[in-house]
Amino acid sequence: MNNQLTPTNEPIMSHIDTQSMNALITEVMAETPYLPEADVTVNTAELTENDRNEVLAFLAEQPVQTVCMAGFIRDNGLVSPNNRGTFYGVRNSEGRLEGVALIGHATLIEARTHRAMQEFGVVAQGFQRTHLVLGEKDKIEQFWNYYADEGQEMRLASRELLFELRNAMQIREEVEGLRRATIDDLDKVAPIQAAMAEAESGINPLSVDPEGFIARCTRRIEMGRVWVIEEDGQLIFKADIQADTPDVIYLEGVWVNPIARSKGIGRKCLRQLSQDLLTRTRSICVLVNEENERAHTFYRMCNFKMRGVYDSIFLKQVDRRTN
């Protein structure tokens, strides 16, 4: 921008066609998810609790895309073993954040510049116990270009569609028995959640980390994040809240018992749960495997709209005994 000032008595903004400016910004962001890069240097460092407000504000600029990271921070803080990883920030020499990432068991990235993505790729290469890299398709492709040469090998890759609900459907009649799970439901909830994880990743967490997985399921139930309905001692419907923020709630583990499918029970339960959740958040989102067309139909019938495309990369685990 030219730093010379032209004397004038008129407001500077009167010379700008704001409609044209907005159209230009929209056009640029449609072509690339990255901001223009100023001629400055960057520094990457672990984030601390002192950074909490700044980081949450940064993530809130893209609330749906960053809901999982924001959820971890709101639940656990920036530094906690419950995050199963470390939060990093990339700042430029002007002190502004250009990216935030959780590098760990699940690696999640929000980078606003190419150089921030490159920094995270290098940092992630130093962590050799990553299970999953997840994010928007274009950003994960860019991350992989920086990460792959020295990082863990890919074991499995899948593509997900992001569905979002902003307006709940009207409920004609309430579903009786839909409730928050209690610790007494753990023995029913945990195997279902583990089977769903295995279907996506090829690894059953009850086999590789039974104590840790049960502890995480227990904590989620105790936080009031699991909803169930049962009939004759069997679970009929289950849904988990993985991340809960004022802007977005992210659901996972939405499950309908095979004996109750194609009867409308799952739709009724999800619609009722969604109506309740939307009293305290602006939207609800889920990720659904690209190939699961039946699930696509299920969510669309509950008024969810497809908003984006995500990639999941599951990584081979390094045998630390040989390193």
What's the CATH H-level superfamily name of the largest domain? Gcn5-related N-acetyltransferase (GNAT)
Taking strands numbered 1, 2, ... along the chain, how are they ordered across the largest sheet?
1-2-3-4-5-12-6-11-10-9-8-7
Share of helical residues: 25-40%
Number of helices: 10
What is the CATH architecture assignment of the largest domain?
3-Layer(aba) Sandwich
Task: Give structural notes.
- The protein has 323 residues and is an alpha+beta fold.
- The protein has 2 domains: 42-152, Gcn5-related N-acetyltransferase (GNAT) (Aminopeptidase, 3-Layer(aba) Sandwich); 165-310, 3-Layer(aba) Sandwich (Aminopeptidase).
- It contains 10 helices and 12 strands.
- It has helices at residues 18-31, 52-60, 67-76, 114-125, 137-147, 186-201, 205-208, 210-222, 265-277, 293-301; strands at residues 42-46, 85-92, 97-104, 106-111, 132-136, 154-165, 179-180, 226-231, 234-244, 248-256, 283-289, 305-315.
- Strands 1-2-3-4-5-12-6-11-10-9-8-7 form a 12-stranded mixed sheet, with helices on both faces.
- α2 packs antiparallel against α3 and α6 crosses α8.
